[in-house]
Amino acid sequence: MNSPDDTTVQAAGCVLWRRSPEDGALEVCLVHRPKYDDWSWPKGKLKPGEDPLAGALREVAEETGCTAAPGAELPTLRYTAGGRPKQVRYWAAEATGGAFVATDEVDRVLWLTPGAARRRLTRPQDRDLVDALLEALRLP
Fold this sequence. Notes:
This protein is α+β, with helices and mostly antiparallel strands and about 140 residues long. The chain has a single domain, classed as Nucleoside Triphosphate Pyrophosphohydrolase, CATH 3.90.79.10. It has four helices and seven strands; from the N terminus they run αββββαβββαα. Strands 1, 2, 3, 4, 5, 6 and 7 form a seven-stranded mixed beta sheet that branches. It starts with a helix and ends with a helix.
């Protein structure tokens, strides 16, 4: 019989942030996945034996084209996807370079203010990570 850890899908991602090139305001990056027609944080399943933080940064690079400097670990989200339990570990990560190129998996990215991102995110549970990022960055 499998333990819960054997059946839970392990994934990782980042709440990617930067300072706006226009006015220096905080912006966060959301990705649009055409398969699900949703807006979410860059994230994905871990490869077997992959370190969660390394996987999170790999997913950011694959989905957004950005390199990132990781910061504080944010709350882990747990939910059911495709009938299986899923656990996604998240980190705050500052975008340090790179450029987005659309793929079949992610066709658009948006850099939004925290408030706009909170409104745009498809899954209500993802919205809590906006507040967690602001707390980690010690912003009101």
